[in-house]
Amino acid sequence: MLTTAKQKSEYTFKANRNLGRHGWLRLTPAYSVKLVEKLLICLEKDAIIADPFSGTATTGLVAAEKGYKAITFDINPFLIWLGKVKCENYSENYLADIRLQVQKALAEYKAIIQQENWVPQIFNIERWWSRQTLQVLAALRVALVEQFGEPIENSSCGLIWVAFCRLVIETSSAAFNHVSMSFNDKVTHFEIEYIEELFLNILNFILKTAENKILGNTNIIEMDACKISKLSNIKVNTIITSPPYPNRISYIRELRPYMYWTKFLNEAKQAGELDWSAVGGTWGIATSRLLSWELLENNLPEEIFSTVEKIRLSDGKNAQLLSIYVLKYFHDMHLHLSSLKSILQDKAELHYIVGNSTFFGNMVDTATLLSASMRLLGYSDIQSEIIRKRNCNKALYEYCVSAKWSSS
Ligand SMILES: C[S@@+](CC[C@H](N)C(=O)[O-])C[C@H]1O[C@@H](n2cnc3c(N)ncnc32)[C@H](O)[C@@H]1O
Fold first, then answer.
1. 50 within ligand 1 shell (Cβ under 6 A)
2. Is the pLDDT of residue 185 over 90?
3. Which residue did the predictor score with more confidence, 30 or 354?
4. 120, 230, 231, 235: which has the highest count of C-beta atoms within 10 A?
C-alpha cells in the first residue's frame, strides 16, 4: 500500500484556494475541504462535530456550510478571530457599507504615505517588504483603522482585515515552495497603483464570497486542547481534526506576518510563549524550554518511549533535545485524548489526520503511536488508513486514524 499512495494535491490546502471563504487566507498546513466533506458524508443531520485543533476553521466552515452544528477550539487567538470571521453570515447592506468605507480610506491614505506611520516590530522587516511597499501598507493601515477600528478590538470588521492580511502576504517576499514558509532571494518593489489594485481585487473576492449564506453554525472557542473542559449542555458525536505533526512546524512562525500586522503579536517573546503552549511548538523560547522539561507521570504507551529512546541514542546534532521534543509531543497528544472524553457522546467517532516524521533516520510513526495512546485510554475500533503521500520525502505520509468512544 505504501508504494501506491499518491500525493493527491486535492487533499491539501492548495485545493481550497478557489473554494470561496476557504480560500481567503493561506495557512500552508491547513487540510483540505474535500477530506472533511468525505468524512461528513455518512453523518446524520443532527450530528455535532468538533475540531479541537481548528486552525483556519476548515472543519468548522465545511460543517456549517453543510448545515451542521460544530464547535472548534484553537490555542492561537488570531486563528480564533479568523475562524469567527470566516464562519459569520453577512448581510447585503453590511457588505455595501464596507465598500463605501474602503473608498473613503483609499481616498485618504495617499496623503499620509510620507509620514512616520506605525509598522510592526517583526524581525528583519526589510527582508519581507521593500521600503516603499512598507510605506504604502502602513499608510493604508492607518486609513483603514480610521474607518473600521483595530482588528483585535473589533472582530465585526474582520473581512477588511482579512483582505489586508492577504495584501500583506502577497506583497511580501514570502515563498511557499517548501512545507514551511521561506523567503525569495530579493524583495520585490511594487508601485503604489499596483498595491491598491491588488487590494481591491482581494477585497472583491472576499466580499463576493462572503455573500454566500451559511446554513449551520460553528462556535469557535479559544481553548487548550490538552485541557478540554466540559461544555455546558453539549456533547459531540464526531471529531474531525488535524493536530500539529511531530515535525517542528511552528504555526506561529507561519502566521507571524498576519499576527504582527493585526497586533495579535507585538514582540518576539510573545510568539515563543504562545508556541510553548502549543502541541509541538518550537519557536524561540519554546525550544530552549524543552531542555528542562520533564515527564512527571509515566503513563504513556511503551511504544512512545522506545521511539524516543532511538532518537536520543542516535548521533544526530541535538539528538537529546529532539528526543524530548518527540516525547513532549506524544505526552501532549495523550493529555488531549484523555481530556477530550469529557465532551464525547456515547459512540462518538474520531478522525485524526496526522503525518509521520523522521529524526536522524528514525521513523516517528505518528499514526501507530497515537493509536497506542487511544487504546490505552479506552477508545475502541482503532484503525489507520493512508490518505496521501507528502511531497517532500518518499517515506512521509498522511494518515487518518479513526476510533470510537463508548462511555459504558
Ligand atoms: C495542523 S493545524 C490545523 C489546521 C486545520 N485543520 C486547518 O485546516 O486550518 C493545527 C492547529 O492546532 C493548533 N494547536 C496547537 N496546539 C494546540 C493546543 N494545545 N490546543 C488547541 N489548539 C492547538 C495550532 O494553533 C494549529 O492551528
1. no
2. no
3. 354
4. 120
pTM: 0.94
Distance of CA 77 to the CA centre of its chain: 11
- CB < 8 Å & 24+ apart, contacts of 7-12: 7/388, 7/389, 7/390, 7/391, 8/387, 8/388, 8/389, 10/34, 11/35, 11/387, 11/388, 11/398, 12/388
55 lines ligand 1 (CB under 6 A): yes
* Superfamily for domain range 2-88+216-252+266-405: Vaccinia Virus protein VP39 (3.40.50.150)
**Please, what is the average pLDDT of the chain?**
92
Domain range annotation of the chain: 2-88+216-252+266-405, 92-210
Per-residue pLDDT at 393 exceeds 70:
no
Residue of higher predicted confidence among 306 and 297:
306
Does 182 score more than 90 pLDDT? no
| Binding site membership of 73 for ligand 1 (Cβ less than 6 Å) | yes
Q: Can you give the pLDDT at residue 34?
A: 92
Atom of ligand 1 nearest to the CA of 55: 27
Evaluate: CB of 355 within 6 angstroms of ligand 1: no
What pLDDT shows up at residue 187?
Answer: 87
Which phi and psi (to 5°) does residue 85 adopt? -60, -40
